[in-house]
Specification:
Layout: E1 2-8, H1 12-28, E2 34-40, E3 58-62, E4 74-77, H2 86-97, E5 101-104, H3 111-121, H4 130-140, H5 147-151, H6 156-167, H7 170-182, H8 185-189, H9 192-215, E6 217-219, E7 222-227, H10 239-243, E8 249-256, E9 259-266, H11 278-283, E10 288-289, E11 293-299, H12 303-319
Parallel strand pairs: 1-2, 1-3, 3-4, 4-5, 7-8
Antiparallel strand pairs: 6-7, 8-9, 9-11, 10-11
């Protein structure tokens, strides 16, 4: 049976979601599976789970915005911006009523956790993979003791997370998901091939930290960083919180390959609460995410607009 698994690419939760869903199908299906992975993204030029790619006898979308198509047999997601429109949500509900296996929970801390819970509670399948579940949930919900722990790459697993965020395309999914299902997570993370991929990332990380340090501005409750003068291959999610521990929010606008990325987040270590839904703020500009973290992608040539959007979001967060 041919199965297309479209999951959030360059994302540890997306990779782990695809791995757990693979295990789920292996437990549910007696037929031999022919698996095709599609690592999807939101930036210009990145793959999406469109009609042309949903060509399996079974098609799944994981940890990614819903595509309104009768070809989608499985759907798991936990983002507040999973549905681009009310019409998409209506189609989702119609398909679910017709028997599609659709599971959505915006309060779940990771998509990997959602798949694990649904498998056990509703499908009667124990997936195991506890290390994958633990780390996917920790990374996606920023459940680290300190911001310094969040940005540290001293452990092999944290280095693997960084490799995934930089390299997890279709081929990476196909290469490493069988390994993650067959070997302990730390053993995979310590694999020589992963270590080789991490070496240049570690060097770029140090350069990125220096760039953030030189460009970061404290704007009230918000740390604002404009890195649009030259492209960066690496965006560190928690660096601003380690550098500015008292900040409540972070807004970073970065030039990346083929465009610009605005990363917005709430500092979970700041000691203050947040009543703002960052996903809704980002959705106004075509982005999305979760209540405490989100992003917006814009194409090349829209530097001024990216800076304007980032500045506007920073002002709203500071005022809120």
């Amino acid at each position: 049976m041919k199965v297309v698994i479209a999951a959030h690419g360059h994302c540890f939760d997306g990779l782990c979601s695809a791995a757990l869903f693979t295990r789920l199908l292996q437990r549910l299906e007696s037929r031999q599976l022919s698996l095709q992975y599609r690592a999807c993204g939101y930036a210009p030029g990145q793959p999406t789970p469109d009609e042309a790619s949903l060509v399996g006898e079974q098609n799944a979308i994981l940890d990614y915005r819903y595509t309104p198509s009768a070809r989608v047999n499985w759907y798991f997601d936990h983002h507040r911006t999973a549905f681009k429109s009310s019409a998409d949500r209506e189609f989702f509900e119609q398909q679910r009523a017709l028997g599609a296996r659709y599971y959505y929970d915006a309060d779940c801390s990771s998509c990997t956790k959602l798949i694990h819970q649904v498998a056990a509670r509703e499908l009667g399948v124990e997936l195991g993979c506890e290390q994958l579940l633990e780390w996917a949930d920790r990374v996606d919900s920023a459940a680290f003791a300190t911001p310094e722990a969040a940005v540290s790459f001293s452990s092999p697993i944290k280095r693997l997370v960084s490799v995934v965020e930089n390299h997890a395309d279709d081929a990476f999914f196909a290469r490493w998901i069988p390994e993650l299902l067959a070997r302990p997570l730390e053993e995979v993370a310590s694999d020589k091939a992963i270590s080789q991929l991490y070496t240049p990332i570690g060097e770029r990380h140090d350069q990125f930290v220096e760039a953030v340090q030189s460009k970061a501005e404290q704007r009230g409750r918000v740390v604002y960083v404009d890195l649009t003068d030259k492209p960066f291959k690496l965006i560190g999610k928690f660096i601003t919180y380690a550098l500015f521990p008292q900040s409540v929010y972070s807004v970073m606008v970065v030039r990346v390959k083929n465009g610009f990325r605005i990363s917005v987040g709430y500092n979970p270590w700041c000691g203050q609460s947040s009543a703002l839904d960052i996903s809704s703020i980002c959705a106004r500009y075509g982005g999305g995410g979760h209540s405490v973290v989100g992003g917006v992608s814009l194409p090349e040539g829209e530097r001024s607009r990216a800076q304007m959007i980032a500045t506007t979001i920073a002002q709203e967060l500071d005022a809120g």
